[in-house]
Specification:
The chain is mainly β. The chain has one domain. Helices cover 2% and strands 64% of the residues. It has one helix and 17 strands. The chain has a 15-stranded mixed sheet that branches. The radius of gyration is 22 Å and the shape is flat. The protein starts with a strand and ends with a strand. 19% of the residues are buried.
Length: 313
């Protein structure tokens, strides 16, 4: 297995808008809504700097919105998370540094208030907004909106006294759909879909498939806590394996984020995000134009460090 490392360092100004609203319907029922929006900015300028350097500007915009409904033994939690970042250096064109959209909705029911086990159903959808490139190559996008797009739908059991802070979810039956709606990427077999078929003269005789379906087992864990004073941790981990195609071959998604509160206005963030998906293959370019070798899955790692000013109201 080869390793692909992506480092992202951001010294930022961050504006965060937070709004928590609780509207009680009955003593046993309530809605809780949380909305946050943030903007990280980074700018570096050099004038007659004898050590050298390149002027650059970067920005990262993120939005988080969650909605929870709870009544008696029924709970429904949904949230949307989206991030988009760009970077511009004086000698380069604008480049994308972050691109993510995710929707998760979970509904659970427990038999009484004495147990912390819920019978749960979950929906998870992920995609991105714009084209992705293997820079500096800008001619052939390696991803775009709904290429890929991921959909998980399943049912199982979930444990947690406070599901917003800690939960363990086990689903023995989860559908996974992978969508590649860009035909060029589908023809090349990107993200695990069936590639196109060609004759001896390289004429396409059958289009690549635009979707791949799987049925398998999903385990997720989320954890949020204040480990020390003014130090908050968020951990999200999930593992999925398909029953019918290489059972035991795990797709892993693990994200850990530390928030350090300096005071009411200054906060630092340190995060790590690891992914591994056997269906996401990579290519290495050879000396021959348009000839690639070495297709295989790689571990993906992203590191994030941000320092900035925050406002909550």
């Amino acid at each position: 297995m080869r390793f692909c490392l992506l480092f992202l360092f951001i010294f930022s100004f961050q504006a965060v808008k937070a709004q928590d609203s609780v509207v009680k319907v009955l003593d046993t029922a309530k809605w809780v809504q949380i909305n946050r929006a943030g903007l990280d900015l980074n700018e570096v300028t050099f004038v007659n700097w004898n050590a050298g350097g390149s002027n650059s500007v970067s920005a990262l915009f993120n939005v988080f919105s969650s909605l929870r409904y709870k009544k008696d033994n029924l709970i429904w939690i949904s949230y949307i998370r989206t991030r988009y970042g760009v970077n511009k250096q004086e000698s380069q064109k604008l480049r994308k540094t972050e691109d993510e959209f995710e929707l998760i909705s979970t509904i659970g029911f427990r038999k009484d208030t004495l147990t912390n086990w819920y019978y749960s159903g979950r929906l998870n959808f992920k995609t991105q907004y714009s084209k992705g490139f293997n820079y500096p190559n800008r001619d052939n996008p390696i991803s775009r909106f709904m290429a890929p797009g991921y959909l998980f739908i399943g049912g199982g059991v979930e444990y947690g006294k406070n599901l917003e802070r800690f939960s363990f979810y086990f689903s023995p039956l989860t559908f996974k759909g992978t969508f590649v709606l860009d035909q060029d990427l589908a023809d090349s077999g990107s993200f695990g879909v069936q590639a196109a078929e060609y004759d001896a003269l390289q004429n396409r005789i059958k289009k690549g498939e635009n979707a791949r379906t799987e049925m398998g087992l999903l385990v997720t864990n989320t954890y949020e806590a204040e480990v020390f004073e003014n130090i908050h941790i968020r951990n999200q981990f999930s593992v999925y394996t398909d029953y019918f195609n290489s059972f035991g071959n795990m797709d892993i998604d693990w994200e850990v984020i530390f928030d350090f509160k300096v005071n009411n206005y200054v906060k630092a963030t340190l995060g790590s995000h690891i992914r591994y998906d056997n269906d996401i293959k990579t290519q290495e370019e050879t000396d021959v134009v348009d000839v690639f070798v070495g297709r295989g899955a790689k571990l993906q790692w992203k590191q994030l460090l941000g320092v900035g000013v925050t406002m909550e109201f």
